[in-house]
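Give me the fold.
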Amino acid sequence: MCMSASALTSLNLPRNPGMPLDLDWVAQVRVNRSAVERRCATHPARRSVKKDWQAAWLLRAIACIDLTTLGGDDTPGNVQRLCLKARHPVRQDLLEAMGAQGLHLTTGAICVYDAFVPTAVTALMGSDIPVAAVSAGFPAGLNPLELRVKEIEHSVAAGAREIDIVITRAHALTQNWQALYDEIRLFRAACGDAHLKTILETGELGTLKNVMKASLVAMMAGADFIKTSTGKAVTNATLPVSLVMLRAIREYDERTAFKVGFKPAGGIRTAKQSLDWLLLMKDELGDCWVHPDLFRIGASGLLTDIERQLEHHVTGQYSAVNRHAMA
């Protein structure tokens, strides 16, 4: 049973242990692209929330953000500032005006490169905010397999509680599902107690059918989350791809009774977009999946726009971006 969707404490769900690869299930996959696109085209217009309800949903969106910095110019200083923002994502005066100061609101996680895991772990000490590391040859996933495994082990040893790995897209493009399954199982074993988020890089998989099949194989291999994108591709998170992945999650839950999380990443920059994804999660999967245990948004600039919307809710005016600094 799920807890109330208003609670931000852990749902304490059992981890997905995976299952033997079922190639018959994979072969039976069918995706009606035109139906998917029609569903997604009408979704933003059919589902909207206003006023106090919108503010409440935006606070929930903040709790589900993996606050991310994955730039080549990252430094310990900007990672530390990001961690401070994760601890206090919304100005205290706004929280007090909304009566939300008792939520103890934080972002869902901090997501950084392996090299900055120790910095982030130290900066977040005393909080319960997990550090997520992008590992396994992110973003291309083409490093030698043994090096990708060692990078995961290194991130976990440094204190990462979540690992975002990227798959070898060639396995999906050539329909070599056994190779993809074996690779993800190996990564899952290297994670130990850390949760495994499997990035499919859907913009490079060619078809929605491939996205559906790769989603199922990743979950069979033991992924705790399936994630759309690295944020480094030309095409990142889209509603049609997300809908296909959510249907795969629902089917897996129905067959195995294990719940797998979902993380769209790349291109989600506005408060309105975050609401679109949250409402899609609720419609397709239910209240459990609008909780940070089962839903994350990979983003860097999204939080600033959400804060601006919250200030507008409180004051009736939009503020300048610099009033919501990253730290």
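The radius of gyration is 19 Å.
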